[in-house]
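anyone seen this seq b4? input:
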Amino acid sequence: MSLNNSKLEKDVQAPITSRLLVICVDRDNDVGDKAGVVTPVVGRNACIEAAQKLALEDPEDADANSIFFAVKTYEDLARKGYQAEVIVVAGVEDRGVQADEKIVREVKSVLASFSANGAVIVSDGEDDESVIPIIQNVIPIVSVQRVVMKVSRSVEYSYAVFGKYLKMIAYDSKYSKFFLGVPGILLVIGGIGTIFGYTQEIFAVLVSILGGAFLIRAFDVDRALTNLSKPTPASLIRTFTFVTGIIIGLAGILSGFSAIHTNILDPQILDSGIPNLFADRVVLGEFIAGALPFLWMGTGSVFGGILLSHWLKGSLRQITDILRLIVLVSLYPTVYQFTNLLIYDESSFTLIPPFLAGLLITLISATFLFRKYRKKKGGEVLTE
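predicted toks r here
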């Protein structure tokens, strides 16, 4: 009886999966592009050599540590009685479908010589782990090991990182032209203005330049201008509608001023400036009523250009763009009624019908569009 129990205990402790393949995944092919290593790399010594080459070329690359971790995992499995092998597979620099196909081919080529019945995936992040379902179709995956780099949390390390980013801002033209160029222009203009005694005027210029720089970077105007050198139908449409929208919006401001009836204005208010001018409720309402159609058309022009550019690219974001236009149209009656409330002193309850109507149109449109989006997305998944 004791002999049978010891035999049963030995069988339980024995590895269920006896032949394991430890796979280190480098989806963007750093090991090939930086170190010139041809994948798949098979075997402990070959993997160590590949990791050393990559570490010498780029000591900060985490993939070298992933390869060493894969070798350590292989050695641990071998000590525990598994028949194991360690390999490094890589995709391509642009990742995507080509990278995944290359990884699958390399795994299959290794399995042709080492018939494993389970795999251990070693990676350094979510990007490499995205190929797990694909490898799962080739060989069962019994474990996934993620390599987490241990870094110093000391003050010295923080200063080193901070200094590295300061150096990047100072010497990398992609960052220095904004973080150093714009403040440099402002300081030079401010210094010249102070010397000649134009402090207030220069302050207005500085604020305008800084605001313009923020707007240019926030709305990717610099990239849009760069794309004009290599125009595409989508970029040309977006640029045209954006410029048109701004011009129409500026025309709306002029229309708002012209809509104000000067006979209702007190001459003292006219002399006191624009801020006091809009303090009057009726004047504010007439300005908004006059500017509203042009402002809405200008905004619609920008939104329409974004919709057309996405439609030409075949992007599913066009559904969101359509909904944005619907919301813009649905809000118009509510804003228009608000101007009537300011001008004619109507009841605030008159805002409720156009608001509810716009909300209903928006909800119905959103429901219809997102149902269509899900059907289209589901169709794409099925065709794959």
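Residues 252 and 291 are 4 Å apart (CA to CA). Residues 1-15, 379-384 have pLDDT under 50 and may be disordered. kinda curious what u guys think
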